[in-house]
Amino acid sequence: MPGDNANKALIDSLNGLLADYFALYIKTKNYHWHVAGPQFRDLHLLFDEQATELFALTDIVAERVRKNGGATLTSIGAIGAKASVKDDDRAKVDAMDMVKALRDDNAALVETIRKVKAAATEAGDNATEGAADDWTDQAQQRVWFLSQILA
Ligand SMILES: [Fe+2]
User: Fold this and answer.
1) 37-62: b or e for each residue (b if 16 or more CB lie within 10 Å)?
2) How many domains, in total, are found in the chain?
3) How many angstroms separate the alpha carbon of residue 87 from the centre of ligand 1?
4) 108: containing domain
């Protein structure tokens, strides 16, 4: 039987991923709102698609925490304390720098999800383990779309 420690580690890992999804959601929306330049329309729409996908994942991850008996994030402050995705509060950001930042953040997310999956395996949480594969595929798809813009 998986122990309490494995369960606590999984909950902590899921809450970290949840914070990163929220942080990357708002960062992607920020770029959706502020992007400018010749590729405005494409990037404005792509960023919105990716933000929508990220936001939809937040509820799924938070409820994996609850189904594992843990407490999840409660506020913007709690998100800020847990997130590893860095804010970008600059007023003007070059459109390609936006694409690069999101590519790197989503690539880092693939690694975070890998750790969540390992924690789920340790804790015997098959549902999170399986869902993590979908989360990985989605993150890799976002990385792919962003990378191709820079190619
Ligand atoms: Fe919009």
Assistant:
1) eeeeeebbebbeebbebbbebbeebb
2) 1
3) 19
4) 4-150
Give 76 Cα–ligand 1 centroid separation in angstroms.
21
Q: How far is the CA of 101 from the centre of ligand 1 (A)?
A: 20
Q: pTM, whole model, 2 decimals?
A: 0.96
Centre of ligand 1 to C-alpha 133, Å, is 29
- What is the CATH classification number for the domain harbouring 122? 1.20.1260.10
Segment 21-56, tens digit of pLDDT? 999 999 999 999 999 999 999 999 999 999 999 999
C-alpha pair distances (Å), 84 with each of 16, 22, 69, 81: 8, 11, 24, 9
